[in-house]
Amino acid sequence: MRKIHMLVPGAGATVALIASGFAISPATATPGSGIAVSPVVNGQFGTIDQSAGPVGNWNFHVKSTDATDVGSDRLTLQPGGYTGWHNHPAPVFVTVTKGTIQWFDGGDPICAWKSYTAGQSFIEPALRTHNARNPTDHASEFIAIRLNPTGVPFRTDQSEPNNCHHGKSH
Length: 170
Prior knowledge:
mainly beta
């Protein structure tokens, strides 16, 4: 039986990270270029503890330990545009709706990347430093469904990882 578990960290976990010396906003952050973010909706849900299933072999459970925002954004990357290196406090569910994006994984030892085209979906793991770029001559768009602790920024800018200095990230 396949089960999906997702634990959305509360603001208390973020405070613990700050207290432990974890860098929330590095001084050498890499801003994006050629990107437009259009918020679609944001809802505040308090703590979440919801389950569904079983439906066949499928089960689902989502639980947060503190107030949680759930939202959606439409992102547009112009030709050659990129998001800049960043991460998120919780998983982000992405679907490409137009064109192609390349997603660079800064946590991978070789800074691996994967291309996604219109109709394809993927998950950006929580706290995983990454960058997305549009390698084409036409604008690309994608929708991001996000969960994050209420009051905690959805995006934290990061420095370009040392393993990604090979020119294909922007």
